[in-house]
Amino acid sequence: MSLEKYHFDIAALVGKSLAGQLNQEEQSVLDGWLAESEENREWYAQISAEPFKLKKLEALKQIDSKSAWAGLKKKQRGKKQRRLMPVWIKYAAAVILPIAIVMGYLFSDNLNVFKRNELPEISPGFSQATLVLDNGKAIRLNDIEENALRVETGAELKLSEKHLAYEQLKTEKAAKPVYNQLIVPRGGEYVLTLSDGTEVSLNADSRLRFPVNFEGNIRKVELEGEAYFKVAHNKAKPFIVNAGGMDVRVLGTEFNISAYKDEPAVYTTLVNGSVSASTADGESTILVPGEQAALEIRSGRLTKQTVDVSFATAWRNGRIRFRDRPLDEIMSNVERWYDVKVIYEDDDLRKMTFGCNLDRYSNIEPLLKVFEANGLLTMSINDRVITVRHASH
Amino acid sequence: MGIQGIELLVGRLKAGDEIAFHSLFDHFYPSLCLFALKYVEDQHAAEDIVQDTFIKYWDKHIDFDHAYKIKSYLYLVTRNSCLNYLRDRKKLAKIQEGADVEADEKFLQYLMEEEAYRILYQAVEQLPPQMRLVIKHALMGLKNSEIAEKMELSEHAVQAYKKRAYKKLRESLNEQSLLVFLVSCILFQ
User: Fold this and answer.
1) Number of other CB atoms surrounding residue A77 within 10 Å
2) Per-residue DSSP letters for B25-53?
3) Backbone angles phi, psi at A268, to 5 degrees
4) I need a surface site. Which of A5, A44, A121, B166 has the fewest CB within 10 A?
5) Which of B171, B168, B166 is nearest to B138 (CA)?
6) CB–CB of A71 and B173 under 8 A?
7) Distance from CA of residue A283 to its chain's centroid?
8) Nearest CA in chain A to B58
9) Residue ranges of A 50-109 with Cβ closer than 8 A to chain B
10) Are A275 and A248 in contact (CB under 8 A)?
11) ipTM > 0.85?
């Protein structure tokens, strides 16, 4: 059956019927057409379903006729100009253009011009941190020698590329405790050993404030961001982490705390031993290994649940690992580690769920590919900004 | 111009009236894009193809004496360009040869779907904003009470809007319905 005026007329009736505006005669004409074949009836049922209507009207609205008209006018102008171009100009251009390109190439001081079209690469974070001393002086640890740092801090310590380790002071001097602060920027990570032997691995965009030497009968540090603690056992001196309104009290154990200011909750996940988590309101709970305490910032509510701890600690094992999590939650980790910003075309995209298990130390591309693989979204990179859009259909 | 008003434009289009051309474009462009997307699945390519279709049409606007011939031309050229595009990109698996109108079973269904929705969409878009919203909700099958709640209106107001909106909708849809009806009567005798 080929295209006839009749098809447009039936379509017009269908359009009217979609608006519920058919009069009796028109209705009977449409009914007649529907009675003709099962195919007609199936088609009509499909396109008149309400979800279909909604989708269709939305899709039509999305198309920007205004800028398309401008585009058409531009094309028309281009076409006219091409027609007006005398033939000899074409030949001249054929000769001059290659020469111009070669000249441009020879005279450009940057021979990388041909590389410009490569995809921008975003490399992962690496070991970097800044130490802030009691007097406010900030020292970038990547730029200083071990001895110089000893002089600056007045502390016994060892410094390597990824690790700063304080040692217990030999002389027993009390006075008032001296506090240092370790700051790990976005796109960074670092390992710190405190003077009691407690090892703290800090994730990107995190800071830990700690005394150079632990005086008194408790060991207390303050955390903002994410860190994995291996607390040196000392029954006489409990170790307390204050993290975004949650106090985590331990004797000796391993656990992960995530306390980012831009996240809705503070999480403590226990790997080994036992900890108690408490809030300023006096709520508290005791965790056994495999349990996670969550303090919801807005409500101040403290809850506890059993989790697979390997997800909370995956970052320390060099993995980016999630199962069935909303995209924005995954991406806020990615933003900190790769030091990028993610923007979303709309909020539906934020709530799409994904899983992944990837090498934390590789470039960002494989990760973005995982998200794009479902065919529903695309990610583009421009100057450390990742834009997430719906895939076009 | 009314929904089906291109009947009234044919003379001006034939005479090369740019404003009439722009109207024609506004009315058909979104639907033709969705139609093209059934074939090429790439928004940018689809829009490009449809713009080219209009340019081709305008190059030979003098040849068209009837509205349905203009519409047929727009859909056919768009479809053929889509098939060419796919062929060029070696994406065409099933339709290799003899991809003429008769062979493309889905073509008529695609076209009728877009035409039906073009008519509905244009009619709805012509309504004033409040009425348009009421009608859109009503088309989705919402009850008056639900629309009232959604729009923060009284049920009475919704009813009043609906009445006026349907009247306007009927008017614009009817601009050509007499014509449709006559033709259909002849066909179905």
Assistant:
1) 10
2) HHHHHHHHHHHHHHHH--HHHHHHHHHHH
3) -120, 125
4) A121
5) B166
6) no
7) 32
8) A76
9) 50, 53-54, 56-57, 59-61, 63, 65, 68-69, 71-72, 75-76, 79
10) yes
11) no
Amino acid identity, residue A13?
L
Mutation pick from B108, B111, B166, B186 vs chain A, by most beta carbons of A within 10 Å, is B108
Overall size of chain B counted in residues? 189
Region of B137 please: left (phi>0), alpha (psi -120 to 50) or beta. Answer: alpha
pLDDT value of position B4? 46
Nearest to A15 among B51, B101, B115 (CB): B115
What pLDDT does B99 receive? 47
CB contact under 8 A, B34 and A14: no
Query: How many residues does the structure list for chain A?
Result: 393
- Structure confidence at residue A97 (pLDDT): 63
Rounded CA gap, A252 and B43, in Å? 59
Q: Can you give the pLDDT at residue B189? A: 34
B111–A3 C-beta distance less than 8 A: yes
CA-wise closest residue to A160 among A181, A139, A145 = A145
Q: What residues contact B47, with CB distance under 8 A and at least 6 apart?
A: A63, A68, A71, B33, B36
Strands A206-211, A199-202: pairing is unpaired
Is beta strand A265-272 parallel, antiparallel or unpaired with respect to A254-259?
antiparallel
Rounded Cα–Cα distance for residues A75 and B156 (Å) = 51
Rounded to 10 degrees, the C-alpha dihedral B91/B94/B96/B97 comes to -160
- Chain A residues in contact with B33 by the CB 8 A cut-off are 63, 68
How far CA A145 is from CA of A149, A157, A316, B90, in Å, comes to: 6, 11, 26, 61
Per the structure block, which two tokens stand in for A184?
A: 């790990």
A376: chain B residues, CB-CB within 8 Å: none
Maximum Cα–Cα distance for chain A, whole Å? Answer: 104
Torsion from C-alpha of A72, A78, A84, A89, nearest 10 degrees: -160
Looking at the DSSP bridge assignments, the partners of residue A164 are: A159, A192
What tokens does B51 get?
């713009």
Give Rg (Cα) of chain B: 19
Task: Count CB atoms within 10 A of the CB of residue A279.
Answer: 17
Domains and CATH numbers, chain B: 1-120 (1.10.1740.10), 127-189 (1.10.10)
Strand partners, A270: A255
Angle between helices B105-125 and B18-40 (to 10 degrees): 130
Residues of chain A falling short of pLDDT 50: 104-119
Find the closest chain A residue to B28 by CA distance. A65
**CA nearest A15 in B: which residue?**
B116
Which chain A residues contact residue B140 at CB under 8 A? Answer: 50, 53-54
- To 5 degrees, how large is the angle CA B73–CA B77–CA B80? 145
Whole-prediction pTM: 0.49
Summary mean pLDDT of chain B: 81
Q: All domains of chain A, ordered by start, with CATH? A: 5-62 (no CATH), 65-115 (no CATH), 127-209 (no CATH), 217-308 (2.60.120.1440), 318-390 (3.55.50.30)
The answer to whether B51 and A70 have CB atoms below 8 angstroms apart is: no
Q: Output the pLDDT for position B113.
A: 95
